[in-house]
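Task card 7
Instruction: Convert sequence to structure tokens.
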Amino acid sequence: MLGVPRDADENAIRGAYRKLARELHPDVNPGDPVAEERFKDVSGAYAVLSDPARRSAFDEFGEIALDPNFDAAKAREAGQAFGGFGRGPDMRGSGGLDDLFSNLFSRGAGRGGFGGARLRRAGPDVEAELELDFLEAALGGEQRLTISRPSANGGSRQQTVTVRIPPGVADGGRIRLRGKGGEGLGSGEPGDLYARIRVRPHPFFRREGRDLYLDLPVSVREATLGAKVQVPTLDGRVTLTIPPGTDSGSKLRLRGKGVPSSSGGTPGDLYVVVQICVPRDLPPEMAKKLEELAEYEPADLRKELS
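Output:
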């Protein structure tokens, strides 16, 4: 848990603990359950390893020695009686093994063999970042993610998991994979994996909630006289009607062409924002024709700015 070897000295242990404690402290990571759980584990590990007696018992007997009611002297007596702790004869079925381990804990710890020791602990949650394309996040799919999964013995191992991406997942959202986090201790359940989503921007779609926005270049002729144009959507191109006299900045809505709902509800809409592109480098005769249109322009074009 502290990332130090078993033969680490007191200074190495103290230095590793202080470094991790600064990184994982709840004040530095407010609202982060993964960091909070790791902070508790690191603090617990340091409490054991900074105490010479507790460290000696842990080195000698392993995880079972972490129980506060564990009696090291009785454990040694039991080890001598059975030819070494944990290596005695198979006493299953006779009740002897149950009685043996019940005696290893001080009075009040309860009987029941290993059940008396606090050997059960849920595994820590793990958080990893998963980067998705814009369309993949909107439409859903599957991605493989390689994580460093904490082991029950304090180490870690690389593991690749498949993440099912629900439609409509947003940038910054999290997908929970139950049981794919750190391994539990003893019979403790494994933790969960939280895949935090990072969505790469799209070249022309913008997202607000479940609605999409698309800037559409339109010529002066199309905006003035009206037109039918092809526009992209998440599931292919569709025909959009531009009404005559459409101003630049007008929003034309395509219902149901936004981001799908992960719960199966109504999808969002696609808003096409008209951007009128004016002609450039007009010859004199064409510029004169535009001048002739002046009498049709609104007289109060900039009234709202006065």
